[in-house]
Write a structure and sequence with these properties.
Layout: H1 13-32, H2 37-40, H3 51-61, H4 72-78, H5 89-99, H6 101-113
Helix pairs in contact: 1-3, 5-6
Length: 118
C-alpha cells in the first residue's frame, strides 16, 4: 500500500483505481496492527492520518459509492510512532513518473499548472 498524495486527475486509471482499492484492501490489516515498518522507513509511503481524505477524494473522482469509515483513533493506537508522518510528495512524483509513462505525461502537464497535490 502506498499513498501517493497526487490528485487523481494527474494519474492514470490504473493508479487511480489501485489507490482507491488498496485503501479498502489494507485497512483491515492496519486495524489489526500488522507491521508497516517497511512502508515507513526509509521512505514514508503511508499517511495514516489522511486515509479517509484520500479515499473520499478518489471515490468521488471515480464516481464510486464505496463508503468507508476510517477509525483514526484505532490507527493512532496501533501506530503512534507513525500516525502523523507525511509522505514525501516530491519523491512520490518522481517515483510515479519513473514507473508509469501515462502518469508521467499527466504529471508533466500538472506541474506546468502547479496543481498536483490533494
Amino acid at each position: 500500500m502506498r499513498i501517493w498524495k497526487i490528485h487523481p486527475l494527474f494519474m492514470c486509471s490504473k493508479h487511480v483505481t489501485g489507490q482507491h482499492s488498496e485503501i479498502h484492501k489494507h485497512l483491515p490489516s492496519l486495524y489489526k496492527g500488522v507491521k508497516i515498518d517497511g512502508r515507513m522507513n526509509p521512505i514514508i509511503q503511508i499517511e495514516l492520518w489522511s486515509l479517509q481524505q484520500v479515499h473520499d477524494k478518489f471515490a468521488q473522482y471515480l464516481n464510486h459509492n464505496s463508503p468507508l469509515e476510517v477509525d483514526e483513533y484505532l490507527l493512532w493506537q496501533n501506530y503512534p510512532q507513525y500516525y502523523h508522518k507525511k509522505v514525501d510528495i516530491e519523491y512520490n512524483i518522481k517515483d510515479l513518473c519513473d514507473r508509469c509513462p501515462v502518469c508521467r505525461k499527466k504529471i508533466k502537464k500538472a506541474l506546468q499548472m502547479k496543481y498536483l497535490m490533494i
